[in-house]
Amino acid sequence: MSIESLKSALPDYAKDLKLNLASVAAEAALTDQQRWGALVATAIASRNPAVIRAVEAEAQVRLSPEALAAAKTAAAIMAMNNVYYRFVHLVGHDDYRTMPARLRMNALARPGVEKADFELWSLAVSAVNGCGMCLESREQVLRDHGVGREAIQAAARVAAVVHAVAVTLEADAAAAVPLAEAA
Questions:
Q1: What single string gives the DSSP state of each residue in the chain?
Q2: Where in the sequence is the domain holding 50, given as residue range(s)?
Q3: Does the active-site annotation cover 85?
Q4: 111 included as an active-site residue
Q5: How many domains does one find in the chain?
Q6: Contact, 112 vs 73, CB < 8 A?
Q7: Tell me: the pLDDT tens digits for 129-181?
Q8: Among residues 41, 54, 134, 155, which one is catalytic?
Q9: For 57-89, how does the pLDDT look when each residue is reduced to its tens digit (9 = 90+)?
């Protein structure tokens, strides 16, 4: 499976997603490593097996083993952090903001790739997972590392498109299941 196969699997009503998937797979504002790491991390965050398989299959020939592992690590660590920090944000009590999280996050200090790339992937995953506090934090770290707003926006576009593809494929598959089987 590949990006092309994902595009082919999308229904006709999702023509814009086909076009956008092609665009983000060739996003010029990101390096190859940034782009493919973001694709992998957001595919995992989107939780669709077909999307994960297709993106990872292409990424394996475009990323070093270390970068592929780091993209998966970004998805894993942010799956945890996004839930925890969304809780902290939504509860809104300052006490929780000052309490130690007591969650291991060693990968953030030694991600195995350039810190800016890992942070970019973490931001993209946070966009999929909807953690405003994590998005603000990751965006600031990226800006401090000299990453421009165009690249940050490009990572958010990757997240939006990959997630939309995953949702659309799941919705189409669910609609194909007869109601008697779905119950």
A1: --HHHHHHHS-GGGHHHHHHHHHHHT-TTS-HHHHHHHHHHHHHHHT-HHHHHHHHHHHTTTS-HHHHHHHHHHHHHHHHHHHHHHHHHHH--HHHHHS------HHHH--SS-HHHHHHHHHHHHHHHT-HHHHHHHHHHHHHTT--HHHHHHHHHHHHHHHHHHHHHHHHHHHHS-HHHH-
A2: 3-182
A3: no
A4: no
A5: 1
A6: yes
A7: 999 999 999 999 999 999 999 999 999 999 999 999 999 999 998 888 776 66
A8: 134
A9: 999 999 999 999 999 999 999 999 999 999 999
pLDDT digits (tens, 9 = 90+) for 5-53: 999 999 999 999 999 999 999 999 999 999 999 999 999 999 999 999 9
26: burial class by Cβ within 10 Å (0-12, 13-18, 19+)? exposed
One-letter amino acid for residue 134 of the chain: C
Residue with tokens 């940050």: 152
At 45, the amino acid letter reads: A
Q: Which two tokens stand for residue 111?
A: 């991600």
Q: What is the CATH number of the domain that holds 92?
A: 1.20.1290.10
Choose, from 131, 135, 141, 159, the residue flagged as catalytic.
Answer: 131
